[in-house]
Task: structure prediction
Amino acid sequence: MKKEFIYKYRIRYADTDKMGVAYHGRYFEWFEAARTELMRANGMSYDSLEDQGISLPVIEAQCRYVQSVQYDEIVQIKTWIDDVTRSRLLIRYELFTKESGRPKAHGFTMHCYMNKQGRAVRAPHDLVEFFNKFLSKKK
Amino acid sequence: MKKEFIYKYRIRYADTDKMGVAYHGRYFEWFEAARTELMRANGMSYDSLEDQGISLPVIEAQCRYVQSVQYDEIVQIKTWIDDVTRSRLLIRYELFTKESGRPKAHGFTMHCYMNKQGRAVRAPHDLVEFFNKFLSKKK
Amino acid sequence: MKKEFIYKYRIRYADTDKMGVAYHGRYFEWFEAARTELMRANGMSYDSLEDQGISLPVIEAQCRYVQSVQYDEIVQIKTWIDDVTRSRLLIRYELFTKESGRPKAHGFTMHCYMNKQGRAVRAPHDLVEFFNKFLSKKK
Amino acid sequence: MKKEFIYKYRIRYADTDKMGVAYHGRYFEWFEAARTELMRANGMSYDSLEDQGISLPVIEAQCRYVQSVQYDEIVQIKTWIDDVTRSRLLIRYELFTKESGRPKAHGFTMHCYMNKQGRAVRAPHDLVEFFNKFLSKKK
Result:
């Protein structure tokens, strides 16, 4: 089990805005990639989960931007599951660059479980167990 | 019939990059909105076309960037159908700002017709007729 | 003074994801457009504010997604200033569609004031006064 | 000299649209990342080029979409310089997935050289020489 995953991504021109730094809305795309890789590192492809009829839509997203990040910097996003119940999944993110001892941004996404008909459902027990295995309550 | 449609859009911070101007990849999102409004202005919602089982995927996209456009500028995108057959639909775009006599960018998208199974198909005659009504070969 | 602004935007294909609804990260771009128009409706262009050497970077962003929104729907984003001090500006958003009595999403962005050198600064008094004029503490 | 670079990227949810495949406009962001890595593989960071006062804005972009690509697929983008003069730089791209013998998309971007004042300029000889070293006229 890998309780944490570090997702690495080099910031593109497309991610920046005229302030010269990465646009705040883009972080949520990186968070998405980060949690997908956290799951894959633990043996589950999100794609196959959807094939089984369960998706994990975001019901809340938040980010605190402590320091801006620049074009061409490689960001490292530490990602872990902070809480899991049969109705909710809470994933947290901390974004670093090579130089930064402290996170330059941190945030979370809250997810529910949704079936193919687009309705919120209680998660199957084995899915909750799966997430529980690499649960990593930090704070 | 409205052979041309002028789609107006105010450039967001999110559209810009660190060069201080709109990112080239974003123009294709504006073109998409422009052609959707061209169809709607002629009585067809693209959404309802998809409900009928026909979608119009982009099989080629091109843009020439003559002059950059800035944050908070309102771009005006002149949009028209340049060619239509039972296998292809060609839509053209010219992007202006208030001050510009000549287009600051121009481009096209080429579309095919796709059924619900994701296969390219020949367009129904009434759809081709519909597009033919506001066809506007310019150049 | 317009204490609230309703920003309207029709959802593009580019805004959607394979779940068939608008991607959660895109909402923050719409919020950005909404707050820009709130300021403009009160006589200030954000662009001219930057020309004066003050920008308003996002230091925190949050959104709660209550119900998904679809391609081609027009979203209406009610936007207002919820709090203002010399170091912080808090803007809130509620997203509706035509049919929805209750918001389908709601969120906020927190901003600081930044000078041309990229440093957080205390806001000039007249700027705080300006924001105070259309402050609208709701909850 | 590495005349070609293969840029790899795993498609995110954010890249997809409600057709269930990657949105056509997103390819241009991947092309951007691909050409940046082509240059880096040959010893030049685009960022440092800009620090020297030369940027390479896109003056034309084109893509042919032969077959769609899916969420979670890894795309491989073969990138090479197809032509270089003192006023223009032409970069080509072919996009593959693991399974595909033939490219699923191919396109190009044409660039000019721009100085810090935002004016098109003739490229310094050493820059043209640099690009010439890994020029790879294919077709």
Remarks:
- The first strand of chain B starts at residue 5 and ends at 10.
- The mean pLDDT of chain B is 94.
